[in-house]
Amino acid sequence: MASAVVVADEVRTALEGGVAIVALETSVIGQGLPSPRNEECIRRMSTAIRMAGAVPGWVGALDGHVTVGLDDGELARFLEPGAATKVARRDLPVAVATRALGATTVSATIWAAARAGVDVAATGGIGGVHRGGDRDVSADLLELARTPGMLVCSGPKSIIDPVATAEKLEELSVAIVGYGVDRLPFFLASETPVELEHRVDGPAEAASMLDASLGLGSDSTLLVCNPVPRALAMPADEVAVAAAEAERRADAAGVEGKARTPYLLAVLAELTDGRSLEANLGLLEDNARVAAEIAVARAVTAGA
Ligand code: PSU
Ligand code: MN
């Protein structure tokens, strides 16, 4: 039986030639950002990766398979609001069998990337333990615990409980590594009060940590947390107030399950006059750049 994970030619050639690749999720395109900013996101992340000397590997489900390395024409299909369904790892078989257009979250993206042999990925903020107990815990966390590799993000999204999420990641043996920082970044805001035990300063240090992890046969992802670019960072209390209001509206509207995260992000953008959108795009672009620099640092060492 042919594999339902399709590796695009550009990604395959890069893999064979030892060229660095960064895997990218499409849920941020399909659900996380409004149109037309989602198109801008594709362009900015892809450009940042190429400028650093790496190849973008956008992941998504379409036409009965999961592709690592969607081209521009394929990515365009994810842009229209509501066109793609949100696909976490557990939803992949359903998306493939029904030939659905599936925008992959972090959990589905790192799963497919690992199967394609791509071990560096980038996103904005990860899912985690939502506020108010552990009724709603993102599938991102468990997948990070059982997928070897490295994910560059800006910490948990603003709508997540950062303390509970950090505790859960410890329980799951996922190491959180600050990228030039000692405290856990908080998506749109630069930091949470959570002190990190691990830190790297620059791509070379991150690359050698990934090498060590893979060399040990570790089965979990190293979570590299790069704070939102300083000029775009929002005050933590402003984000907290807006996030709390977003939760209230989601409760009142009865928005549950996987629709909740996109709903909360949309309300957040509305409540902050779009500043959260600028910060979100800026951190996505910067995380793409950092991930590409790390992947390139590894490719250089491997080729030496
Ligand atoms: N980061 C963003 N915007 C997003 C997401 C992350 O800046 O839309 C998506 C990611 O795909 C992440 C998902 O994996 O939200 C988590 O959703 P949930 O909480 O339903 O597991
Ligand atoms: Mn959930």
Q: Shape from CA axes?
A: globular
What CATH calls the topology is: Indigoidine synthase fold
Per CATH, the superfamily is Indigoidine synthase domain
- The share of residues in extended strands comes to 5-15%
* Largest sheet properties: 11 strands, mixed
Percent helix, as a range, is: 40-55%
Description:
- It is a single chain.
- With 304 residues, the chain is an alpha/beta fold.
- The chain has a single domain, classed as Indigoidine synthase domain (Indigoidine synthase fold).
- The protein contains 12 helices and 11 strands.
- Strands 1, 2, 3, 4, 5, 6, 7, 8, 9, 10 and 11 form an 11-stranded mixed sheet that branches.
- Helix 3 packs parallel to helix 12 (275-303).
- The termini are far apart.
- The model has no long low-confidence stretch (mean pLDDT 96).
Summarize the structure.
With 304 residues, this protein is of the alpha/beta class. It contains twelve helices and eleven strands. Strand 5 (85-87), helix 5 (92-97) and strand 6 form a beta-alpha-beta unit.
List keywords for this structure.
304 residues, alpha/beta, Indigoidine synthase fold, eleven-stranded mixed sheet, 11 strands, binds pseudouridine-5'-monophosphate, binds manganese (II) ion
